Amino acid sequence: MAAETGRQRPVYRRIVLKLSGEALAGSQGYGLDPSVLTRVGDELREVVKLGVELAVVIGGGNIFRGMAASAGGMERATADYMGMLATIINALALQDALEKAGCQTRVLSAIEMRAVAEPYIRRRAIRHLEKGRVVIFAAGTGNPFFTTDTAGALRAVEIGADAILKATKVDGIYSADPARDASAERLPRVTYIEVLNRRLEVMDTTAISLCMDNKLPIVVFDLTRPGNIARIVCGEPVGSIVTSSA
After folding, report:
1. Nearest to 88 by CA among 115, 114, 66, 60
2. Which of 112, 156, 191, 220 has the fewest CB atoms within 10 Å distance of its CB?
């Protein structure tokens, strides 16, 4: 199964990649960077070649951030629905990049939008994965007041994923923001309780609690280093992992 890439057999059968909208913006910080989309598409193709069933939950912060709009006076539910629509744009862009890379894909939206995406149905999503298609989950949970982190944890639990991979711009979880605190310590392995008690910025508390209740490992890693996703699925110690025991 892994012979094409020269790597060992994957340790994960099915994963969910949580990809922020900002990750697709690249260095410009907003909108979509075509070069980033191409690179991500190529990386995910290599993961699929390993025989791993791959789903992606995508954010929309590069286009519209509901929390920021709410803080500015917009009604929170309206702002969150606008954020969900932003994730649809990102999902279609990622779908295009993946298909240009040679992957079969399906976009499943929590908000019904039949002209551009299939409605999210759990059994249909699992069937697509079993057929080797990359499934892109868009529109979060379909409900306001929930983040795409929570959507990532929820979808991972629903489809029986072995792990959720949280893509970031740093090489794991730190005791503080390494960009602001030079003494910040990298934590290669932490527990869900530690993340909650120490308020480590991994995911929001709802997402962490959902993963903890279902014993779903969270791997936090640097998306900007090429090949990291394939390394993780093959069991290499990349980034930081959150589990029940340290």
Report:
1. 60
2. 112
- Give the residue from 98, 121, 97 showing the smallest Cα distance to 109: 121
- pLDDT tens track for 125-174: 999 999 999 999 999 999 999 999 999 999 999 999 999 999 998 999 99
Largest distance between two CA atoms of the chain: 55
Cα 203 to the chain's mean position, in Å? Answer: 11
pTM of the predicted protein model: 0.93
Q: How many CB atoms lie within 10 A of CB 99?
A: 13
Write down all domains in the chain, each with its CATH number in brackets: 14-243 (3.40.1160.10)
- The helix or strand, by DSSP H or E, that contains position 233, with its residue range, turns out to be helix 228-233
